[in-house]
Amino acid sequence: MDKQSRLHFVDLHRAIALLVMIEVHVFNSMLIPSVKQTGWFSVLNFINGLVAPSFLFVSGIAFVLSSRSKLDEQRNFGKAFWKRLQRISLVFIAGYSLHLPVLSMRKMIYEISYEKVLGFYNVDVLQCIATGLLLLFIIRLAIKNDRLYHFVILTLVIIIVAISPLMWSIDFGNYLPIPLANYFNQKHGSFFPLFPWLGFLFSGVVIMNIFLEFREKGLEEFFVKRMMIISLIVILLSHLLLSDLFPQVIRSIRPNPIFFVERLAYVCLIFSLCFYFLRKKEISKSLILDVSRESLLVYWLHLTLLFGVAIKGKSIVQWVNTTFGVLECLVATIIMILLMILAAKAWGFVKFNYPRAASIITAVVILGGLAAFFVT
Fold it and tell me: Side-chain half-sphere of 39: how many Cα atoms within 13 Å?
């Protein structure tokens, strides 16, 4: 297995997170509520809870892999600098577009209820990722020494996790506009505020930097094996600490640092399993890689189809209205996954064979959407 193919396990990790994410959104929004009270669903819910940490973690990894080249050009504000900013801006735009109550600024100001406007201000996983990527980009440009850069990111992970309970206790809405306050905690409805979720993204940077150092010495398997062992130990200890064997005060902390470490250990375990899986099987031409490489499209499109596309004034989720059983949800998940694979494959084909056309299509969609929002 050559060095390039060995990194396909990162794509596999991200693809798994994306495909399970589709299942999460289908089951959570369509399944009959009574089924969610059963024992097996709590297990599924636990597994589903690893999706967002994995997605953030792999986004940090992707930043490391994409930022190793053209650093001097980026520091000199060359073409690579502006291209990076465009990509980060696209993630921001995609994130906020998913929460638009209507595609009209006038209606948002004069006709839409304040509760729906607050929903638009919610910080979701894409806004969290975009903010994290922007911060990483600034830090990477400012710090030229690799060792110092790695130390700073590790320090930030520790700080983010440590102060998150404090950050959640403060109502930043008393000091900042709600759109900004939402970035710090969940008090005004944010799903993925920076504290503690940014810690997963920065952890991906830390782990990948260490992995690459071992990889340069031909010792990547040595590192992954030990990370897997450590992850298993941390998982067992975390479950023990969060059990009834220890005082309630330990479990009552929100957000809980132990919970964060437990989730991070699970994510690192998945990272390790993907690595070992691809030592046995090659997926360089797999459809899974197409899903991973077009992750933003897959994320945005499947949510738009489920929650945004209106049929006689209702979205698909509103039409179903939590009336599906397990079998119906499973079928809906498979259909949505197949649609996303086809969309990723088609868009990947266009980008590879007609890059100019792909850029024009992207610009037209974004500018057209912005024009419709501000003009109508």
Answer: 0
Tokens for 350? 């266009």
- This model's pTM is above 0.90: yes
Looking at residue 109, its pLDDT comes to: 86
What is the Cα–Cα distance from 122 to 193, expressed in whole angstroms? Answer: 9
pLDDT at 6: 53
* 157 CB-contact burial (10 Å; exposed 0-12 / middle 13-18 / buried 19+): buried
Length of the chain: 376
In sequence order, what DSSP letters do the residues of 252-293 get, joined into one string?
T-SS-HHHHHHHHHHHHHHHHHHHHHHHH---TT-HHHHHHH
The structural domains of the chain, with segments of one domain joined by +, span: 3-282+322-329
Report the C-alpha gap between 56 and 64 in whole angstroms. Answer: 13
pLDDT in tens, 229-283: 999 999 999 999 988 777 777 777 789 999 999 999 999 999 999 999 988 777 6
User: Which residue type, as a one-letter code, is found at position 224?
Assistant: V
Do 129 and 192 touch, CB atoms closer than 8 A?
no
